[in-house]
Every structure is written in C-alpha cells, then in structure tokens.
C-alpha cells in the first residue's frame, strides 16, 4: 500500500481568501486551451482568427461552469433540487458534472458560432482537442482534494485517504481518470488530428474515446453514496451517462466520413 501524499487542498491564501487547487486547475486548463487554440488558429483548416480564440475560451468556460452545475443538480442531485431549488446556486457546497459541462460547452459553442457566423463543426472539433488537458488537471485536483476516490482494494498501490471515514485502502481512481480521460485521450486526439480529417470526426472520436475510457474508470471509482449502483447490479450513474455519449460519438464519426465520401464522389464527376 502506498501512503497518500497529504497535500493541503488550499494552494495559498490571500488574507481571508483561500485559493484552492481545484480553482487553479480550472484556470490552468483554460490557459492551456487558450494557448492551444491560438496555435491551431494558425492552421488553414481552422476557421478561427487569433482574436476569436479569446471569445471561444470565454464561452466554453461559461458552458463548463453553468452546464456542469446544472448537470450535477439534475443527474446527481435530483431529490435535493426538488426539495430546495435554491440549492442549485449553492456553489460553495461543491458538485459539478462532466456530462453536464459537456452539454453546456456544446450549447455555448453553438451560440458562439452563430453569433460570429462561423461553422459549428470545425470549431467543435477544435474544442474537443482543447478539452482533455483541462480534464486531466481537474482529476489531479480531485486527488488533492480527496474526493471521488476509488473502491476498496488490496492492490499494492492502494491508498488510505485521510478524509475517508471508513479508512479503507482504495484505488486512487482520480489518477486513473487523469491518465485515461486526460493524458491518453489527448494523445489519441492529437495523433488523429495530425493529418486532415473530416469535419465532425475529431468531436466524434472525443465522444467515443472519453465515453469508453470513463466507462472503464467507473469500475474502480466508488459510486456516489446517495445513488449507488444503478443498473444490472454493477452499472453506475456515470456509466449510464457515458452510453449516449458513446452513441453520439459513433454517429458523428459515421456522419463525418459519410459526408466526406459523398463530397469526394461529387468532386470526381
């Protein structure tokens, strides 16, 4: 068993204001997204000008925060939301959902492209590339904050989290998700986008890749105590939410390559 590196979730304090690692992870993820977007905007296949990247990151951040909170309230806190609708605005109590944040980002990007008269598909592909690093940093922040830990296990790298009231040796599932949904997914998408691909295909691969990798990681992550196992005696809420995401990603990949083939045939006539 490995000792848990007990890191203070508060990175530093400015007088009465405490700055948490989770907040810094969000900022670092957005900073990377901005830098990556600036670099990609130099490519001829990216329909964004340098100045528009700033607005894209702002809209995406808005979608993450609003969608993540609303999604958490609906997907994971439905009963609390019905009992007290104002609980939705108690951000200090925590609670963000990736799947809700994803939907929020898609809506925000659609709004952004409509207002700027930009094509939705290529911009969505770009954002799919910008996202995994932020996801990776968020999982590291989960690890530091001792939240979303794993299921009990006896593997040699198991850890006992000081905040765990049961003091059980558990999978450091936050690190699994950091490696799978963050690092590995980014490398796959970076490799896939290293050559020209049909519009929508990068977003489609993101959906399939994240959905499958998150589905795997959920086998090691402790289910939410107030929800537990959802279906078939083993499927969690997170896995259920991944299924439509995988299906949507497969559809986008099919749609992208179908359209590319149709365009190629027309051009050959």
TrEMBL record:
GO CC, one annotated term: plasma membrane
Main location per the UniProt record: membrane
InterPro entries referenced in this protein's UniProt entry, alphabetically: Lgt
Transmembrane segments: 20-36, 56-76, 96-113, 120-141, 175-192, 199-217, 237-257
Residues annotated as binding a 1,2-diacyl-sn-glycero-3-phospho-(1'-sn-glycerol): 139
Keywords, sorted A to Z: Cell membrane, Lipoprotein, Membrane, Transferase, Transmembrane, Transmembrane helix
Pathway: Protein modification; lipoprotein biosynthesis (diacylglyceryl transfer)
BP GO annotations: lipoprotein biosynthetic process
Enzyme class label: transferase
Subcellular location: Cell membrane
Protein name, per record: Phosphatidylglycerol--prolipoprotein diacylglyceryl transferase
Organism: Kineobactrum sediminis
Gene field: lgt
